[in-house]
Structure to design on (564 residues):
RNA sequence: UGGGGUGUCGUCAAGCGGUAAGACACAGGCCUUUGGAGCCUGCAUUCGGAGGUUCGAAUCCUCCCACCCCAGCCA
């Protein structure tokens, strides 16, 4: 299978790395890391960062560590760690034996803090949280120095030791870096670097009651791991001076450099962990792996491939500009990949019964069908044909609109991989007027070609033999939100959830070859889209398919409204 | 009104002083037993705006404008 071309992407980060090679910074060494906090599932935005960090590592023959940034016990859990590990592996990346946890560094980090105190660069502040906020000043007014700022090194050491020993309640003391309360950058106004938090940590349990803050832990974790390029998102730009300050106090050489890039925003969805958690907890969707979710788990269950996601990440590029990537690009990448690898099959989602009047009663023919018309290597399968069939309701119209190429009164149409049939009559429900059955005739000569008189039959529709197909449930998914940029709404974003994001069709029929389709396997239902056997709900005797993505539908555009 | 960033096609995004890549989307057309796939064509005289430097500027300078981030003991 020819791999989608992913020519080595070039971006400003790789430029920096290559500049570093020229100046011999880090001695030609490159080391990156992907540092998620285990307080939620990874989503497509994380995938961008994963691809960036691991991609750079493999491109330069370097390493990328996986580091769980678990410095705040509230909200972090093993479940999230496991999901993160699983998702990154599934995406196709490997960190070998370099799985690290910030919590593994707690002792070292503590010692670094002691070092800072001894250097007179940190102090224990006993102001309340509210007071610290007041002293911090505002965006336009400078802050004021804490009355505790002048504590002696010995007193600070004593207090910090006792903080660790658990002598104090939450919030009574913090350790602060002594930098500059009048800095125009608020981050530099004596930032808190340690807080007391009597909460059990999912890994260290109750061993610690003080935890380092991100700004302190992250740069030093990077240093401990000898990371060279610490890539993070734009909102940390203000924190970079602090990153550099801490590292400058404590690390002798090969100090890591932080580089910020713009996080991914995807249209019609939301990539804020906080909001995603809300969707899960408030049950707006079924869980982190709901196929409508932009999470890796959700996309995996939906049927997206790692290749498609990686290719998407390569296509969107890396820059510093805030962006809103059109979700149609993701869908394009999914189709591009699935078009190559998904075997073709036939399935009827909204069945309409068709009786072939002149077809022998009780006869069953087996037609050999290509699994992939453009790729003979994918082989063939047998598809049974008989007198009673199901076709898609959409493929018959009592009053065909202009340009409609499918079946209608007095029309004929090609059954995909089979005969041309001709309309004879229809049966309607007396109550509703709904068409419930069609009667057609077939032309036995047209199995493998056009009618003998050379008539051209344009329409081709898919079908399934009523007695030889298997019932299935099909879940049709659509974008999660009805507005292009749900992330930008001020009020309750759940108001903009797409009520039609899931449509369940319980009475579908798929061809017999699918009877033993295994969970997670993907197929194209010809003319409809790509479908994946649901890995959670599908059973051998009750198949459930997720629609991964529809096929491009140029008729839907002409008709004005694409239907499932 | 402080500081830090960013502004190139509808959406991403190249471009790094020599006269606007590419992709998605969109619009036409060809082909077709998937209205799929594939193929072809079109799609920024202009780079947030205004000045300036230069033979030449999206790229350099000046001023202006817009948007994003920062006042968690979150990350």
């Amino acid at each position: 299978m020819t791999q989608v071309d992913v020519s080595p992407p070039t971006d400003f980060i790789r430029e920096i790395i290559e500049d570093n090679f020229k100046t011999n910074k880090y001695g030609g060494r490159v080391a990156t890391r992907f540092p998620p906090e285990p307080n939620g599932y990874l989503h497509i935005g994380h995938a961008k960062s994963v691809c960036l960090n691991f991609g750079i590592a493999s491109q330069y023959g370097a390493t990328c560590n996986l580091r769980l940034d678990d410095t705040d016990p509230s909200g972090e859990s093993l479940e999230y760690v496991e999901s993160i590990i699983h998702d990154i592996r599934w995406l196709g990346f490997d960190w070998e034996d370099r799985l690290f946890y910030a919590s593994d560094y707690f002792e070292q980090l503590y010692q670094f803090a002691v070092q800072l105190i001894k250097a007179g660069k940190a102090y224990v502040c006993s102001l309340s949280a509210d007071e610290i906020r007041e002293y911090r000043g505002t965006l336009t007014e400078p802050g004021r120095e804490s009355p505790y700022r002048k504590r002696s090194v010995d007193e600070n050491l004593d207090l910090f030791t006792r903080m660790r020993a658990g002598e104090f309640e939450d919030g009574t003391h913090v350790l602060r870096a002594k930098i500059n309360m009048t800095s125009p950058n608020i981050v530099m106004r004596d930032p808190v670097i340690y807080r007391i938090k009597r909460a059990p940590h999912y890994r260290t349990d109750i061993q610690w009651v003080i935890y380092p803050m991100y700004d302190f832990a992250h740069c030093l974790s990077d240093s401990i791991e000898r990371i060279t390029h610490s890539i993070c998102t734009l909102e940390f730009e203000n924190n970079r001076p602090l990153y550099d300050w801490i590292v400058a106090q404590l690390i002798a050489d090969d100090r890591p450099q932080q580089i910020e890039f713009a996080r991914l925003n995807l249209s019609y969805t939301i990539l804020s962990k906080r909001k995603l958690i809300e969707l899960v907890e408030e049950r707006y969707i079924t869980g982190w792996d709901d196929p409508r979710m932009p999470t890796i788990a959700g996309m995996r269950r939906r049927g997206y491939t790692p290749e498609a996601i990686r290719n998407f990440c390569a296509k969107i590029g890396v820059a510093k500009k805030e962006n809103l990537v059109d979700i149609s690009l993701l869908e394009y990448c999914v189709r591009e990949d699935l078009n190559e690898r998904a075997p073709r099959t036939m399935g009827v989602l909204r069945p309409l019964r068709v009786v072939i009047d002149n077809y022998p009663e009780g006869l069953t023919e087996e037609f050999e069908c290509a699994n992939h018309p453009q790729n003979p290597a994918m082989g063939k399968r047998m598809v049974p044909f008989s007198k009673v069939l199901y076709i898609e309701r959409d493929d018959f119209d009592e009053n065909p609109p202009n340009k409609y190429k499918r079946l209608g009164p007095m029309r004929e149409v090609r059954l995909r991989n089979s005969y041309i049939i001709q309309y004879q009559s229809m049966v309607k429900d007396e109550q509703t007027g709904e068409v419930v059955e069609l009667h057609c005739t077939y032309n036995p000569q047209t199995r493998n070609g056009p009618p003998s008189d050379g008539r051209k039959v344009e329409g081709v529709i898919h079908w399934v033999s009523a007695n030889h197909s298997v019932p299935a449930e099909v879940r049709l998914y659509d974008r999660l939100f009805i507005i292009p940029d749900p992330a930008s709404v001020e009020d309750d974003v759940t108001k903009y959830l797409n009520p039609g994001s899931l449509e369940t069709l319980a009475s579908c029929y798929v061809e017999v070859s699918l009877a033993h389709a295994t969970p997670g396997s993907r197929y194209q239902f010809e003319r409809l889209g790509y479908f994946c056997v649901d890995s959670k709900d599908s059973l051998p005797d009750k198949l459930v398919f997720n629609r991964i993505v529809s096929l491009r539908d140029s008729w839907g555009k002409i008709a004005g409204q694409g239907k499932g």
Observations:
- Chain A is about 25% helix and 25% strand.
- Residues 1-7 of chain A have pLDDT under 50 and may be disordered.
